[in-house]
Amino acid sequence: MEAYAARHHVPIINEQGRRAFLQVIEEAKPHRVLEIGTAIGYSALLMAQHGAEDVQITTLELSEERARLAESFWERSPYKERINLHLGDAGELLQGLPRPEGGFDFVFIDAAKGQYVDYFQKIQPLLAEKAVILADNVLFRGYVLGQEKPPRRFKTIVKRLQQYLQLVQETPGYSTKILVNGDGLAVTYKGLISEAGFGFEKT
Predict the structure, then answer these.
(1) Cα separations in angstroms, 2 against 5, 50, 143
(2) From CA 166, how far away is CA 46, in angstroms rounded?
(3) How confident is the prediction for the chain on average, in pLDDT?
(4) What is the pLDDT of residue 193?
(5) Neighbouring residues of 68: CB distance < 8 A, sequence distance ≥ 6
(6) What count of other Cβ atoms lies within 10 Å of the Cβ of residue 196?
(7) Stretch 60-80: mean pLDDT, rounded?
(8) What is the DSSP string of 138-169?
(9) What are the tens digits of pLDDT across the range 156-196?
(10) Residue 23: helix, strand or coil by DSSP?
(11) Helix, strand, or coil (residue 120)
């Protein structure tokens, strides 16, 4: 899958980010996962492999082509029965998505960067009492918290990611830390206390 992604320029979590991603999964050991942005199914397999023994993953993907490719990869794995894919626009799917018993205890957001605020708001009714929300690419090439101004084509994305980071810092009942590995991972805890509070770490 890594070779396919490299050949076809499919964005999957990179090597630096992958180490931090797996560390968060290993610590959380989630049982009920919601993934927003399937791509070719790479991160879903990682979560199935490193989550709890009974982990079940619900994943949302806009592209039918990528969804079918993801399913073909899952078919070759021992985890295919643990992953349930919903095809369509995540913003719309989230509004009608059934809440699993107990709610989702882990959410991985890796879809349209400009929609992270919308996703965060729409997942609220679906969350467990204690949950972890992991958002990828939140530093977006260093522009989000850096001093350098982004090119015009990235200005909207950067502004909305800044709004997302502000939202997860200021929403009552949540704490957030940013892992600077890869393109930045925001780890947001609901009903749990992050040892670092809001801060920056490299793993």
Answers:
(1) 5, 18, 26
(2) 28
(3) 91
(4) 57
(5) none
(6) 13
(7) 96
(8) TTGGGTTTSSSPPPGGGHHHHHHHHHHHHHHH
(9) 999 999 999 999 999 999 999 999 877 889 999 998 755 44
(10) helix
(11) helix
